[in-house]
Each structure stands twice: as C-alpha cells, then as structure tokens.
Amino acid sequence: MVTGTRTPESSQRATVRTRVVTREEAERRGAANVGEALDGELGVQVNPSAYGALGNPSAIQIQGFDLDRVLVLEDGERVIGDAGGAIDLSSIPLGDVSRIELVTGPTSSLYGTSAIGGVVNVLSAPPDHPGFSGRARVEGRSRAGLLLHGAGAYRGERTWASVDASFQREDSLSLVEPSENLADPGAGADAPTALPERSQRLLGLRAGATLDRGIDLRLRARWIHDEQDGIEQKEWPVLGVYLYDLPEVTDRITLHLAETLDFGGGSSLRLAAGRQWASRTSRRDLRGSPDEELRERSGTLQSYEAIATIADGQRTWVAGARAEVETLDQRLKVTKVSASGTVETPPIDEVPETQLGSAALYGQLAWKLTDELTLMPGVRGELRLRYGGVIAPRLALAYRPAPSLTLRVSGGRGFRAPSAKELGFSLDHSSLGYILQGNPALAPETSWGVNGDVTWTPREGLTARAGAFANWVDDLIDVDPTPLDSSGGVDTHTYMNIAEARTAGIELSTTLKATPWLRVEAGYAYLWTRDDTADHAQPLSGKPPHTAQAALRGELPFEIELVARLRTISSAFIEEDLHAPGFTTLDARLARPLWPSSQAYLGVRNLLGAHKDPDRRGDHRPLEGRTFYVGVRADLPWEDS
What we know:
Helix content: under 10%
Number of strands: 35
Number of helices: 4
CATH superfamily: TonB-dependent receptor, beta-barrel domain
Radius of gyration: 25 Å
Structural class: mainly beta
Mean pLDDT: 91
C-alpha cells in the first residue's frame, strides 16, 4: 500500500489509513468496473442518478465532496477526460486492475489539486506467477449485457510483460414509455434513455525489466474506446414532441514510463513520465431532420515526476518534484434548416485552446519516535502559471500502544485549481436565455480538514473501527447568480469564488470471522454538511446523511461461496422543500469452483429493485432496477484455490 504516504506500508500499520479493494473482492461484489467496485464502500457514494444534468456519470462522493474535489488516479497519474467535472468511474474497466486504494480527507500535500475530499488510486501490478500465465472472464447481464476479458502474461527472472483486452456492452435503459405525441411519427417509437446503449473496448500493454545495480523499468500503455447511443425527448409548445439521438464516441490513451533505482536499505529514486490523450465527439441530432449539434473535445496531460525515498534509521524521508502541462479545447458546430436550406454555422470555440502549467515540490518525513509512535509531517508547494502559488501542509500521527490497538489522526490543507473549462468556457445558450463565460481571474478552492480513527482487534478474527472527520472549505467555484450583463432577454453569467462549506461525519464498522466458513461485516456512516453561502445555512445538495450496511461471506455445502451485501441510504436534501427519497439495495452472489483456479458464478445487483421515478424531481435512487448476471472466470496456471 503506497497511496496514503507514498511509501510501502501494510494497510494495518499505515500511518494514514488507506482502504484497499482488490480485483478479487470487486468481482465478489459483482463489479465490472471501478464505479461498481466502490459503490459498496462505507462512507462513499457512487450514484449516477445524482448527476443527471451531466449525463449520469458514475462520479464518487467522499466526505460530502464530489466532482472535481475527489482526485482519481491510475498508477499515481491523474485521470483526465471528465464529464462536466466528474470522472466517470464506470468508464474504467477492471480488466487490468490489481487493486483500488482509497484515502479519505485532504491529501493535497502529496497529490496536489483536487484532493480535497480524498484520493482514488487505481493500480496495476506485475504478473503473480513465474513463466506464462493467463486470465479470462466471460459474463452475461440481464440488460443484454456482455463482458469478455482476456489477459496473457510472462514473468522471467528479470523481465515480465502482460497484455490485456476486454469488451463490454449493455443495452440502453429507459424509465418512461415512448411518447404518443411525436411531432414526426416517422421518427420512430423509441423512448428517451436514462442510460445509453454502451460498448467499450480496452487494449493494454504492461512490461517491466530489472537491470543491474537495482534498476527497475516499467511501461504501461492503454487504450480505451467507448461508444454510447442515447435518446433525448423534448416537447416544444404547439409543435409537439421531438426525439434527439445522442451518439458519443470517447477515446482515451495512456502512456506511462517509470524507472526506479534501488539504493538498498529502503532508499530509492523513482523517475516517471506520463502522457494522456482524451478526445470526445458527441452529437445531438434531431431525428428525421438535418438539424445537428456536433461537439468535439480534446485534452492532453503531460507530466514528469521524481520521488526520492531516503531511509535513515527511524526516519524515512520522501522528497518529490512534479511538473505537468494540461491542454483542453472544445468546439461546437451547428447545422440548421432555414427557409433557404441547410445552413452550417462556423465552428464556435466553446473552450478555446487553453493550456495550464504547474510545478510542485513536496516533502514528507515518517519519524518513528518509538516503537509505538510515528510522526509524519509533510508539505507541498505548487506554482500554477494562471494564479500563482499554493502551500498545502499535512501532519499525521499514528500510535500503537498495544498490538491490538491503533490510533491515528491527521490534519491538512487541500486545494483545487480552476479547471480549463472554468477558466475558458464560453457556452452560448441564448435560446434558453443565458450565456456562460469562463473567468481567468479565478482563485483556487482551499480547505482545512481533520481526520481521526481508532482500530481495535481484541482477538484474531474480530476488528472494530471508529472514525471521524471535519472539513472547512473556502472559495468554492460556482456560477455567479448575478449576471454580468442582460440584453435582449439573455443573461450572461460567469464563474466566481463564491461558496463556503463545512462537512463532518463519523464512521463505525466491525468485521467478524465468526467461523472458518463465515465472515460478517457491519457499518454505519453519518455525514453532516452545511452550505454557508446561502441566505440561511442549509445542507449541501444531494448528500445523504445516513448510510448503514451489512455484508457476509460464507462457504456453503458443495463448495458454494455466498456473498451478500445490504446497504441503506437515507433521504437527502436537494433544495428547500425537496428531498431525494431514501432506498435500500441488496446484492448477492453464488459461486462454485469448476476446476482449480476457475469459478462459475451467478448473482444479482439491487435485488430489492429500488429505482428512480422519472416523474419525481430530485429522485436519486438507482437508475437500474434488478440486474442479474452469470459468468465464468479462470486463471492459468491451474492451482488449487
């Protein structure tokens, strides 16, 4: 485990608590992507229906923060290609994932921008087995879904390589019946979609080599191609109901190279360079008409980082430097039908080509004062060309008065830099009565946060944990409700640093291995939020205060494994006199070995069928009802499980 401190530690003894979800555990939860793998974590919400205005991405909420305020990494590199500020975790497949590490609370002292609520790090790993090995998974889902994944790998004494390929598709999901009042009956009887028809392809290559003198090289290359086809319905007064097709194609390419020099005794130097390309083409086509909106978006991220770890007896020093350059642009092309025929407007730069650059220096000291007490101060200084510098300190303390008891507390500063969209966005919706412009004078959002937890293991097989947190956030970026200009019935708005907020909460959980064949878990999380910029203080929108869950994993007769997870989410404040209803989900999975290192399984997600009511405003219940799945997975070489 490295995400919480950037140093190798066991998750049980880590100075900063880091939760780990392995690929095997994710598959037990019936997950096919990172979003589904994390939606059962206590204190975490992954709910696409909370982001309907953005196209229902599977964004994550941690400690009351979401969108750009939770940093998502892949092998330590920031993920780009968001949807309206939200990284869609459902777009990250599990095929080449080894584990997912989750750190809550401000972590900007190590990772910089966006780490206000926490960090999600999706990690890969070298092959486990020497020689040739492989892995395959075939799964079918009730929403006409299909998942195919295959991987092949070789590990020698000094070199290793792995190739991963996967394909996944699902039919669209509609929550309403087709309209009988179509303005153009020939346009078809399709209903608007809550989730589009989707197909995704992944191709990945990972390789490594250990050279003389403790030099380790690693390369990762990955391509994800995502196609979606949705339908939107809009009713125009007098004219009737029209259908719009919403095809979208996204490509994301990642290239990452790292070299680690091992000096022995726990000291090392890691040099890394990364490059990402993300492009998205989306259309909004009026069915049965040449009317069309075409948006083309492209972004890149290039990064360089050096991290030195120096082991000095009871002290371990970490010092790092990072530089990155991000670019983003978005163009809109509109085709309209007029009295004179079809007219194509000149392309509009909704986001003119915007380049953001930053450089950072950071350091951390893990000082083992005694066998029981570890002190870990750290600080990051980051310079951004658009607005200047930010300092983000952190202090963590871990105390183990007994092998069965661990106490941890940490506090630090988080920040989020304005995105290229917020700095350069220019969305012209004059037909709807507004224009939204970027603001190059934006300052970063900043926060202070405190986290603490106690973990007690009174005997083998029993673990209890209690945790608490509090955050204070200033200068949150939002749309200024006061227009810059009003002319001809059109208001022009811009982004401003106008919001202040607070969040706090507690988490209680226990895990018991009751017998060699039965393991049970139970947990409760409470979240309190406050928007201090409203005319009168009110909770942040869409943040449920109560979450309770229970899970069990048991071995039944005939080598059958049962995994079940029950989760209850309370009602959430949306706006004055409007609340999202609470709901309960139950997931269950049965699995049995077919031969060594293989397994057949069947399961259901959301067995109780909680789902969103499209006619109820502010309803954040799941978009999908019951989802059944059945599949087979196998690993080579075959070994007894």
